Amino acid sequence: MTPPPRDVGLDALPDVVLCERATDGDTAAFEVLARRYGPMMRGYAMRLTGSTADADDAVQETLIHAWDHLADLRDGSVVKSWLMRICGRRSIDIVRRRREHADADTLAGVPDHRPTPESATIAGSGLDSLARSLEALPAEQRQCWVLKEMGGLSYEEIAEQLRISSESVRGRLARARATLMKDMEGWR
Amino acid sequence: MTDETNGTDAPRPARADSPADDCGHSLEELGEYLETGSSPYAAHFGQCPQCQAGLASLRVLGDLTRRLAEEDTQAAAASDGWLQDILSNLRLETRAGRSIPVASENPDDGLSETEGAVVALIRSAGDAIDGVTIGKCRLHGDITRPGAPTRVELSVTALHGYRLPALVDALRTSVGEVFGLHTELHLDGVDITVADIVQDGQGTAPGPGLEEHP
User: Fold this and answer.
1) Are A81 and A60 within 8 A, CB to CB?
2) Measured by CB atoms within 10 angstroms of the end CB, which terminus of chain A is less buried, N or C?
């Protein structure tokens, strides 16, 4: 009887090695990366799009793009932030596409208040209240806040993604911050 | 403290819509101070009760936002079905790479294999050796020419406790076998870099997306 082979399992490999293997065409290594960072991407995309269906589309598009462009990623150790960045971009694009396709008349004046299904599972009054306050923000402000505070993007990066000026980003963030701070006084 | 966003000169007059005792500093100024750790008004922030309260609230808001992101991640990790659906829908293109000629009985038949297929064979042969996992694998040389001299560059992760010289020898033998069996290239050498030595083959993986991976 020989002992079972002892190896470094794919799940235990660092991002750098998984990226190397995926770049060489190893789909199993790519799946490990997708499992490692998929949940984080989905949460981010849900906050940006306000919908699980859109979030799943964003994650799927992110993974397809990532597979096709992994060779461009020089340093596999930053794959997490690379994926999150692509995912943010895809999420914004999906919201934009949806807007462009929707009938402008039916949308006029309708606030973007769709709750995310997962928000019901968020326990703890503070988090729960923040989730609701975020969802109640106008979409343009919520996106700025989420890109900045959850995605860690700079004003300039947000401006580029949303195709608006840095000054507009600054203004939207200020309004989002003021609203959230005011809301927070109510639930603390 | 106001939620006004423009203007950076201090001190400034209190606005008509602000309380009379308003010190005139915006949440944005406080936010930037929190982020960068510096501000032209740092001295004022240090002793103004209003700004102190504003800074404390901003810290709580930032902290809650980060925790919400973590909760979102955990909620997404707890239900696996959506990810499984996405993964099973992914149609990942194979990476063919260059075309490696293979001799055929009939010289008129063009027969070839892909670089990607050979790399995959080397990877699985290497993974089959105990104690080592293949990372990067590159074929160097003009492999589109029959019998071309070729070097293989390998980057590997080894499991702690295995003797590296033995691992490297086994890898070289294994790559040689793959070349002999599956290609007509001339193997000039195998350059192996042990990029990492891992203590435990199982216990080092992070939870899905929750930790920074080393």
Assistant:
1) no
2) N
Neighbours of B190 (CB within 10 A): 19
Cα–Cα distance, B200 to B193 (Å, whole number): 20
- Specify the pLDDT at position A122: 52
For A44-58, write each residue's pLDDT tens digit.
Answer: 999 999 999 999 999
Q: Is the ipTM of this complex over 0.90?
A: no
The residue among B83, B124, B162, B171 with the most chain A CBs within 10 A of its CB, best to mutate, is: B83
A33 has a chain B CB within 8 A of its CB: no
Instruction: Give the architecture (CATH level 2) of B99-198.
Output: 2-Layer Sandwich (3.30)
| Domain map (residue ranges) of chain B | 1-92, 99-198
User: What are the backbone angles phi and psi of residue B93, rounded to the nearest 5°?
Assistant: -65, 140
Question: Cβ contacts of residue B193 below 8 Å, gap of 6+?
Answer: B153, B154, B155, B156
Q: Do A126 and B64 touch (CB under 8 A)?
A: yes
Residue A138 lies in a domain: yes
Range list of H helices, chain A: 15-23, 27-49, 52-69, 79-101, 104-107, 125-136, 139-149, 155-162, 166-187
Q: What is the mean pLDDT of residues B175-195?
A: 94
Residue identified by tokens 């299904």 is A117
Nearest CA in chain B to A26: B120
Shared domain for A99 and A129, answered yes or no, is no
CATH number, domain at A129? Answer: 1.10.10.10
- Pairing of the two strands B149-159 and B132-140: antiparallel
Residue A129 has phi, psi (to 5 degrees) of -65, -40
pLDDT in tens, A94-111: 999 988 877 554 444 444
Residue A115 lies in a domain: no
The helix (run of H) or strand (run of E) holding residue B140 is strand B132-140
- On whether the CB atoms of residues A17 and B195 are closer than 8 A, the answer is yes
State the residue range of the domain holding A133. Answer: 123-188
Interval A144-178: pLDDT, tens: 999 999 999 999 999 999 999 999 999 999 999 99
CA quadruple A5, A7, A10, A11: dihedral, nearest 10 = 100
pLDDT tens digit string along B41-70? 999 999 999 999 999 999 999 999 999 999
The number of distinct structural domains making up chain A is 2
- On whether residue A84 sits in a domain, the answer given is yes
